[in-house]
Amino acid sequence: MTVLATVAALATAAGTGPGAAHELDDRLPAAVTMNFVPPPPGSYALHAIMRAPDGPVLDHDGRRLPLSRFTSGKITLLGFIYTSCADPRGCPLTSQVFYTVRHRVAEDPELRERVRLVSLSFDPARDTPVAMRHYAASVPRNGVEWAFLTTELPRTLVPLLDGFGQDVRVELDARGRPAGPLAHVLKVFLIDERAVVREIYTTSYLFTEVILNDIKTLRLEGKTARRAAP
Amino acid sequence: MRAIRVRGTFLGGIVGILALALAAASPAGADETCNSPYMGNLIKGQEDYLYVWALGVKSMGDGADKLVTIDVNPASSRYGKVIHKVSVRGRGEAHHMGFTDDRRFLWAGGLDNSRISIFDVGTDPARPKLVQTIADMPAKTGYVGPHTFYAMPGRMLVQGLSNAKDGGGVTGMALYSNKGELIATYPMPATGGGDGYGYDIAINPQKNALLTSSFTGRKNYMRNLGELVKDAEAMKRFGNTMAVWDLKAMKPKKVLSVPGAPLEIRWSLKDGDTWAITATALTSKLWLIKPDASGEWQAKEVAVIDDPTKIPLPVDISINKDGTGLWVNTFMDGKTRYFDLSNPEQPRQTYERVTGKQVNMISQSWDGTRVYIASSLLANWDKAGADDEQFVRGFRWDGKELKPAFEVDFYKEKLGRAHHMKLGSKALKSAYGLERTATLR
After folding, report:
1. Is ipTM over 0.90?
2. B40: domain CATH number?
3. A180 touching B, CB under 8 A?
């Protein structure tokens, strides 16, 4: 699947490209139905799960920056992608949800300047800054930051994957050589302003309304903390 | 009524019934259709490995609890053979296991020593490696007896069976990061009809529902069964409830009355289904948990497992991938039973076979054609003498008949008591660290 085709898939719902082997689980449809009313923002706790890892990344202009530049100072929604991904339950689903969340955040003046989205590639060989720039070009500006990042080499990527606990497998051919798409468990990380991971979503729980409520919960928490500060 | 010899003690009459009833109690959730919905990488084809968490037996081999790997691919020259084992420190009543959400790590608990052993099964699925041990769960949480290990995104939810203060059944859940760091604790509901007890965990993300069940505390499950059944007060301390939780908020919403130690919980995996099923060990029933017409969660008795007066003692259950059938192992009579769940309101037993002198755990492949059975319940509750068979047996299931495929005699192999089983695949090799770096290049 080409980058352009993937971008097209981004703009649509869950993508309809040829089914790449993303993971072995085909239990769930591309879009998971949320059959409940989520608890209101601030009525529950989002515990500190772990500190977001840091390390060098490349932005879509090829500038070498620390990832912490993109995981602190704002409430951040971060997901790993690769631009050739075609599994409708994988990267395209993440991007679909990111689109929706970003649209909703843009409509909320309380959140617009305080939330960012980050898509970080785990395919540095193919997802160069140029490729990420092309990918980002399909995203309309709406005032909400969406960073498309990659890394220079696998050795700079792997510590970030390890730090987030993000798996990735490479399909092998009959002779044991890398072949076919990357495979991974879809994970999206909600990170607070202090670069602490506060929630992790996977395919079974990637609900826009829940994510928005979680973002608002962190926002309420931040406001409370600021009020309590001397 | 027959007298049953349990760990060298002959029990008859009512004591025998109680012993039988008690012997029901501690099974485990296990298999490809019963994993956490947050876990990716389900094995839909032929599995290669069966991981067995085995209880060490004094003076048998190294005497330690161990993770045993059996080759279960019929195409392999090592089919049905033990290909690897890794021991942990000492004997701690090895019991249940659970994969992390990415299936790279397998967490395994000891009910007695409350240690959690974490094995790397992603780097080389044929050769699991012990990479971390969590030894401070009692000190940090107040809970003991880590039982169910349920994957959540980036985290592991661990259900305790007991508490460090009095060894009773009041307990809670502990949430760890996948790196093994404690994140939060959640006490089981002890008000609104709750008994504070815990046993199994099962989540339905689409309903934002977490179900828990209840068993008994360490003072009971580590006690010699013959002594326990003579203690009328101790006999009262078994769980009779399930709880429905608001998953997102991790707050109990409703306590359901389910008498007789409701154990394993299985959600139907069929799209659109919103029900779960459990078996009560002491009363030998199947119970259905589902919302009523108004959306209120209810528990309903839907079937009897054999004649409860015969004390068949249902232990582990395994639901098939489309929620139309349920395997039930009954420990005391050594039977493996199949229930037709086409109508979950009226399950019907359609098949049974004696698969051992004592049977506890049962696991099935995703397509249901391969069924694995293990023998041990708890070290102090297993049968004695010639009835104390310890094995893993593999079967083929064609929808009509369970046909033996292989057997590993755990005593003959000096491996101990075979308890919980999980499946593995060489395709899930995660090419991690340096190896992954190389493949990505």
Report:
1. no
2. 2.130.10.10
3. no
